[in-house]
Write a structure and sequence with these properties.
Layout: E1 2-3, H1 16-23, E2 36-42, E3 52-57, E4 65-74, H2 77-84, E5 95-96, E6 101-108, E7 120-123, E8 138-142, E9 147-148, H3 155-175, E10 183-187, H4 192-203, E11 207-212, H5 217-223, E12 225-230, H6 236-243, E13 248-253, H7 260-266, E14 267-275, H8 287-292, E15 296-299, H9 307-322, E16 330-335, H10 339-347, E17 354-359
Parallel strand pairs: 1-16, 10-11, 10-13, 11-12, 13-14, 14-15, 16-17
Antiparallel strand pairs: 2-3, 2-5, 4-6, 4-8, 4-17, 6-7, 7-9
Helix pairs in contact: 3-4, 3-9, 6-7
């Protein structure tokens, strides 16, 4: 685990009253603001350098909300999409960035149940859909988007796996309709989401085939993959067919390549292909081969997941965290002020396989 102590420069801090007025946080009747907090935020979509570090007004605590003192957050590829405008969000602006947090309950709205001050909690669905983000000292979170921390699990270890594990759960079970006994092919299996896919699929009783670099093969096997193929092998499709002669029931590509020609070629009858990365790709679809196999392709983004779907994922995430089965491969820790740098490094491909945790 690496600790990086060189924070990015702090840029212009807004005045309290100015920020509160612009973000629309004038105290409405029946609600009160929860004060001010240091945060990482953007005033409009743009490059990583658009992220500012400053004091912001905490949104009012609604009746069904829980006020959380945030300890740690992180940065996911989708956070860079929101910040850049690739994944459009309705605001409000200025917008606090990031979606994942671990923290402690400070206060509970009168209509929120299941939580009490002092409870350790986590959330992985902030910063989009009209919700302010997680990268602030204090955050108001709807109670149905908040989950208890398993006992004995650290904040850094928890926040590092929330997004990859929830994405994997939705890809496999919600959209991929995975069943015990299925054969699954995970491309890009050594990455953060890829590793979670392998782990969860093997846990569910699937036979997992994986593609990765040769140097990452042992890591993939340790998570439950029974066969690991070099992703650069020109005969990749042939090797997958040899390992699973009847075909593959579920194909998931976290690398963002979306080689649908190979995916359809190795697909079993009534197999499914789930697209979850590669927002800018324009692959060729062998439509005839797909429909001749009764095959299906579905895409999803975690930002569209419903509250009940996220809660289902949270249940398994907590189970695996409590059992010590769910851990990030490589974690580095940085201060909140490093948020712009982390966004830039993630977009530049310098953080592949690394989870960066920011202390708020």
């Amino acid at each position: 685990m690496t600790t990086v102590d060189d924070p990015a420069p702090v840029v212009g801090l807004p005045e309290r009253g100015d920020f509160a007025g612009r973000i629309g946080l004038i105290e409405p009747a029946g609600l009160r603001t929860a004060g001010y907090a240091r945060a990482a935020y953007i005033e409009s979509v743009g490059p990583a350098e658009a992220i500012r570090i400053g004091e912001v007004a905490v949104p009012p605590l609604g009746q069904s909300d829980v006020l959380v003192d945030v300890e740690v957050t992180t940065v996911n590829p989708v956070d860079t999409f929101v910040r850049s405008g690739l994944f459009a969000v309705p605001g409000p602006f200025p917008l606090v960035v990031s979606r994942d947090l671990v923290g402690t309950v400070r206060e509970v709205g009168c209509g929120a149940s299941g939580f009490a001050p002092g409870d350790r909690v986590w959330c992985n669905s902030l910063g989009h859909g009209g919700r302010q983000g997680a990268a602030a000292e204090r955050v108001a979170v709807a109670a149905d988007r908040l989950y208890p921390m398993p006992a004995g699990v650290g904040a850094v270890d928890t926040v590092a796996v929330l997004h990859p594990a929830a994405t994997a759960y939705l890809a496999l079970f919600t959209h991929g309709r995975l069943r015990a006994g299925d054969t699954v092919l995970v491309s890009g299996a050594a990455g953060n989401v890829g590793s979670a896919l392998v782990l969860l699929a093997a846990w569910a009783g699937a036979t997992v085939l994986a593609t990765a670099r040769p140097a990452d093969a042992e890591h993939c096997r340790s998570l439950g993959a029974v066969e690991v193929f070099d992703y650069t092998d020109p005969n990749l499709a042939g090797r997958v067919r040899a390992a699973s002669p009847r075909g593959v029931d579920l194909v998931l590509d976290t690398s963002g390549v979306n080689d649908l020609t190979t995916s359809v070629e190795v697909l079993a009858r009534r197999g499914r292909i789930v697209l979850l990365a590669g927002a800018r790709t324009r692959p060729v679809l062998p439509a005839g081969a797909l429909y001749m196999k009764d095959g299906a392709i579905v895409g999803f983004v975690i930002s569209h997941a419903g509250v009940s779907e996220l809660a289902e994922a949270a249940g398994l995430i907590n189970q695996l965290l409590a059992g010590g089965q769910l851990r990030a491969r490589t974690v580095e820790e940085r201060p909140l002020a490093a948020m712009p740098s982390v966004h830039r490094e993630l977009e530049d491909g310098r953080l592949r396989g690394v989870r960066t945790v920011l202390h708020v």
